[in-house]
């Protein structure tokens, strides 16, 4: 996955609160299949 894609989701998550963004981005980095599903959903 591209780092820019992670960064975009991190920015969106930060609007909900910085404390929530870090665990979310860590989870997505550790689970690339979940990240792929998120990106596929975003494209639709």
UniProtKB/TrEMBL annotation:
The domain of life for this entry's organism is Bacteria
For this entry, the protein name equals Uncharacterized protein
The beginning of the lineage is: Bacteria, Bacillati, Actinomycetota, Actinomycetes, Micrococcales
């Amino acid at each position: 996955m591209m780092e820019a894609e992670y960064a975009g989701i991190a920015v969106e998550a930060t609007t909900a609160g910085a404390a929530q963004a870090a665990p979310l981005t860590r989870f997505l980095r550790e689970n690339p299949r979940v990240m792929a599903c998120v990106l596929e959903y975003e494209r639709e």
